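ESCALATION

Customer reports they have been waiting on this structure for their group meeting. Please prioritize. Original submission:
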Amino acid sequence: MPVNANPSLAFQLAVTQYRLGRLDLAETACRDVLKGQPKHPGALHLLGVISLRRFKPAAAVEWFDRLLKLKPDLPDVLNNRGMALQDLGRPKEALASFDGALKLKPDYAEALTNRGALLVAARRFDEAARTYARLLAVAPDRSYARGALLAARLGMCDWTDFESLSADVAARVERGEFADDPTAFTWHSVSPALQLRAAEIYAARQWPSPPLPASTIVRPERERIRLAYFSGDFREHAVAFNFVNLFERHDRARFEVWGISYGPNDGSLMRARLERSFDRFIDTRAMDDQNMAQMMRREGIDIVVDLTGFTGGNRTAVLAHRPAPIQVNHQLFGTGAPFMDYIVSDATIVPDHLAGFYRERLARLPDCCMVTDDAQPIAEAPPSRAAEGLPEQGFVFACFNNVNKILPPLFAVWMRLLRAVEGSVLWLRQDNALALANLRRAAEQAGIAGERLVFARRVPLPEHLARHRLADLFVDTFPYNAHTTAVHALWAGLPVLSERGESAPSRVATSLLKAVGLPELGVTSLGQYEALALDLAAHPERLAALKDRLAQARTTAPLFDSDRYRRHLESAYGTMYRRWRNGQAPASFDVAPEEPSS
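Update from on-call: job pushed to the front of the queue and completed.
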């Protein structure tokens, strides 16, 4: 008897094929089921799930809706439908779908997890925190829940139970539990060993081991290395602003440069510029992981460079299928994944004694590994202090980092600085109303008037860079330093004071400061940080000297020599390529410094 003549047998076959990862065969079997039994609930649901796995959320919603018309009280289907709607950019409908699932099944941990993630993405941090607290009440050992609760609270600067919750998350990571997202964990963790552990746990869970080793990939030797940058952020995004100048400058005699995009097309001027910056640009949003990897293999990509890492919406699972013989992490933080060959870094962020905390081999650049753009325009005239809500007189401490990086110990130092420096203010990024209210409340609890915290409104980047001239000193966060925000401050001429720890995120600003010729502003303790901030506020001539050095550095320092950076990075790619062509396994190396551009 043919399988399609027996819907029950055909559905069993569909489930088996799905569990084996054979989505095409699973879909065929489901359609066979529907030929004999058009209202089969299992087949309708599985077709929706397969569509989700294939990054076809619109098709998934159609299958789920078809099933819900027949049986509206299915919490699993409502939960999956919510995920598909979120992927389609319809958050209100997605939230309603998750809430429908929870109405039917109030202790549904999966729906609570998805609801919390949606609310975080919508920056509704208070509701997200309540959702994660509810999740922990019904599922105390739920993976990721404690870290997610802490991250939601940090997003609105709510430091309730910060120390105990952070310690609990760290202890769970040490025991091998999936207790936190690896990126969010770096916001509060100071341990490179635990950060590696968190990354390895995530990688093992989210990205399966590679089915195809690099040694089996054969490529014809071409005149130019086929280099692909892989990202979901080729749009109006910090990644695009940081890298587009590099894409445009790559040496086309040596490299054929591709952009492989899996994120949204926002129709922006930046998107159009990005598409022009590559020799070939491919939008892969409609491809599933396996098909995307097969396409990259078929097109003969020699080196693929991941610009996304753990960040939201990543498709790093594609790289687990080993689409290229050389796979490079250009996100500063180790992935803990066995299929990533190299990480681009430098000797300040990863000195020899910290090299063991990376699964990837190190490709260390001689200056700083952060990309900068020496053509980034700055508006000619800054706004007035009054226009920014700043006092006409008085010292301005500034920090434009994301507010989730602000932790209680550092905030206490900031409050002591305001208390010690009469008439001073703290100029912060205007992020969300909850964070603003919580920070002002915390200031008042420390005896500082809430009005001495000023919040910078969002403006276009050239105008934002110009208004840095209204500030006196950028005071960095710890243990997660300023990265792009530090680059912006230094490019605009504002000195950055930063504390260095052992973990990579706590060493980035010091790397930037060394490369711009101000290494003394990278200190090694919170006590040194506070003392130096007070000294500079009390001695304007010392601060003026730093600003003079910084102004000169714009044309002389390695940090702002984009072509020098490009040459060093291309040298690293060349070393990786030669090793592979010679049949050698990936190995760590330092790029020799070249002479500055003339």
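Sent to customer with the following note: The chain has three domains: 1-106, 214-365, 386-560.
Escalation resolved.
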